[in-house]
Structures are given as structure tokens and as C-alpha cells.
């Protein structure tokens, strides 16, 4: 089954064509600062991690993790190997972050380690990578009630270091399993043209088969490979598929043995054509390679006005109806010195270019004459131009580069969103994202797949994947007006997020500054737009907060009421919504 080419359907009622922009608000936002007992376990890029993919995956890693199952609960890992948690109940009575788990081994001795990564699989399960190549599956019990007891249910060394992208918990026929998506960037020795690295996505399933057994083991391990770090990658909640959004496509390179048997065989090796042919406006020339030792007695050729038959010994080279008529009496054949048979056919309809020699025959190959291709290109030259606007006197020029701003320019390469079937690992759906720049992802409902936000024109549109709806898998659920245009002007932005209830979006720079963009809300006073002569009922506010620190921002998370910002030695809490 071929992959279906799909498109993202925008809900017009969620767009606001009359949006006037964000108004800067000077209202101060409450900001609380907590000093950490130990610094965050930041792992800087090594000298051999020099590519853009290393920077995307590890250099821009978000060290602050939000537990989507329990609002306003965030976690980070410090340099003592402790997983620290801060759960906010009351802003004015913040406690210190508390330790919930400690890594069993000292990871600082590992020279090639990555940042430790954490993902909240379900209300009672967590997946953890220590950054050295070891995977942990941890049962936490109900994290909403203290005290928590985190217990390791599975741990295994899986080779080179990796980070965890996504994980889900599955319960089918009393068999519990955890599906995890891992990412590595590995050296490719044979790659002489590119960066020398490839990105590996590994879909690992850890299962406990018997109810009375406590032992978990790896039951499936699939590997996909690509040349760019995915913007978005997530496993469907039912475990039946995988969605990946990236600049360059991913391909399956390693599957389980039982799946290998069900997959199609590799493509057949390309067979060399039986004959080659080329043409001019007056005639055609067919060339056939003769077997060694062939004589003219081995060659049988029959010319008819609309048919041709070529036979070499007992081998039928070509037989059938010609695309158009020929002068069969003027057609000839000769044997060349290089064991080649050359056949000349005279066209009856001069000037007619044939798309094929024999109708329906695919065993030959057309050789195009370079001079002929150049002549065709010259004929089409009037349809193209090297100049951006070759006719400036025209009333409506197609484009004027001087009117473009830097934030209007997109990447030249086109991204795509692909869905892979969990059983066959074949691509079932493909969406060409074109110039719809990926902005960020957010978990709106932890029982569903993470949402992703794309730039559409000047707006930022939020999309919710629905794996159960095969005909319409991606739903447009919210719009952040003009945010696609606004964020493009923030050159130093590092992290991007939004509230799960879409009430605001926020981004932070590498140092200090946090920008908040609120959805339009009704005004308490009446405003009047003099240019358009109408009353303004709603205003969208922009707010800026500057943190009192010079340490780089390492983590950034948004909830409905608060923003959490993590630096090397401090955790900041910004109260965004106070209505609740």
C-alpha cells in the first residue's frame, strides 16, 4: 500500500483576519526565585559534536521536564545524579525542590555521555536515560500522592548514549508494556559528502508477559535512520503507529526477525535495456548490442509500415506496433565494428517526436541528444527568467525582494510529516509541510499525542494528531495570531512553549528575557480605532520579564497558570494567569 498524500485542514473560524497586533503591557508579573542545592547536570557539547544536528538534539536540550499528568509539577536532574521535583500548590509558600530518585551509578566518569533525559509515560510510570547508554523503566506509583517510591522495574545497557524523545504505557490482554522512542547521533564512516553523521531513532518496547512475573524484557526493537534531527516524533497512544516531522525523511534499517519476513523483499536490480534508441525530426536510430561471435545470418529483421520485428538467434529483442509510421523500404540496418547492430528508420511524419519506439514496450531506453535538449530549452526560454522581476513596468510585478523582510524568508528545504504503521513499519500518510515552519510541541492532553505548532503565513497554528481518525488525522485546535511573524524577529530565542489551554504562548532567549503573548481578551474600558472608525472590544497583550540572573537558561516549561524557567543554579517561577 502506497502512502497517502495528505494535507492539514485549517479551520477558518479559528483565524482572525482583523487581528491588529500585540499591545505591550507594563503590568509586572509576580516572579519567584528558588536557589538550587546543587547545579543542574548540564553536559556541554564536545569537540567531536560539531554538526547542526548535535546542536539541535543536545545543545538546545530542555533540562526541565513537566509532568503533564499532574499540573504544575516539574523535574530536573542535578550533578549529584538526583532527580529533583518541585510541585507548586501555593506560590507564596514555595518549598525547596525534593529528591525523588537517585541514579544508581556515577555517570560523570563516562567521557562520551550525553545529558540525562526523562519522560513521564503515565501517571505511575517514568522512563529515564542516564546519558551513558543505559535505559531505565521506573514504576513511581501515584505521583500525585506523597511519599513517592520510585522503583526500577527494568534497566539495560543499549550501546552508545542516547536521549529519550517519547514514551507510552500500554496494557493489552493483561500484558503491560512500555514503548520508548530513543534518539542517537552516530558516526557514519562511509559518508564522504555529508557531515559524516546520521540520526538514529529506535523504537523499543519493554514488556512483562506474565501477570505473576515481575521481570520486564525488550520484546521489540526497530531502528529508523535519517540525516536530520526530527522536529517532532511521537508514538501513538495505542502503540499502532509512529509520527515523525523532519527536514529529511527517515527509513527503516533494522526490524525484528518476525517483521522482516512479512515485509516486502528488496527492489530488483535494474536490468540493462535490450536496445537503445534516439531520434531526430526525420529519422530514428536503434542500437542493439550483439552477442559475441554473432554473424549477419543470426540477425532477422522485418520492417513494415507500422510494425517492426528484431530477432537475434533465438532472442526476441523487440516486436510490436511502432508509435508512428515509417518508410519501410528506406529503412536499413548495418553491423558496426564494436559488435553493435545499428538500425535506421525513416519517419513518414517528419517533425513528429516519438515518446516511445514500440507502443507499450519498456525494454528500450531513449538517449536524448544534448543539442536537441538545448534547442528545446531555448524555445522555452521566454517562460523563465534569471531576474526576479524582469518587467518592472508591469502593473503588478510577481515579487519584489526589497519588500521582503528577514522574518519572511523560510528555509529552502521542505519539511514533511510522516506516519509509520506499527506492524509493517511502512509509511501510510505523508504531509508536505512546505514552508510551514515548525515552532514547538506541547502536551495538551497527556492521554493523546503531543500537539505541534506550525507557522502558517504570519500566524502560529496548533495541531492535535488523532490516530483513530485515518481520514483526518490532524486537527487544527488553536491559533496564536501573528505569532509566526513575531517570533521570527527574536534571533536569540532558545525555547518556545504555550499553555495547555492555549491562553498564552511564551518564548525565552538564551539569557534573562522571557516574552509572553496572550490571547485577545475583552477590555474593561472602551477603545476607539480612529483609522477604521470602530470600537475595539479585545486586545492581545505582550509582556516581557527579565530574570535576575546572568546564568544561561537551560529549561523552560509552561502550564496554564505558571512559567517555569531553569538556569544553572536557580529555578524561577513566573505567575502568568492569576484569575484562577
TrEMBL record:
<feature type="domain" description="CS">
    <location>
        <begin position="270"/>
        <end position="358"/>
    </location>
</feature>
<dbReference type="InterPro" id="IPR008978">
    <property type="entry name" value="HSP20-like_chaperone"/>
</dbReference>
<dbReference type="InterPro" id="IPR007052">
    <property type="entry name" value="CS_dom"/>
</dbReference>
<dbReference type="InterPro" id="IPR037895">
    <property type="entry name" value="NUDCD1"/>
</dbReference>
<dbReference type="GO" id="GO:0005829">
    <property type="term" value="C:cytosol"/>
</dbReference>
<protein>
    <recommendedName>
        <fullName>NudC domain-containing protein 1</fullName>
    </recommendedName>
</protein>
<keyword id="KW-0963">Cytoplasm</keyword>
<dbReference type="GO" id="GO:0005654">
    <property type="term" value="C:nucleoplasm"/>
</dbReference>
<keyword id="KW-0539">Nucleus</keyword>
<dbReference type="Pfam" id="PF04969">
    <property type="entry name" value="CS"/>
</dbReference>
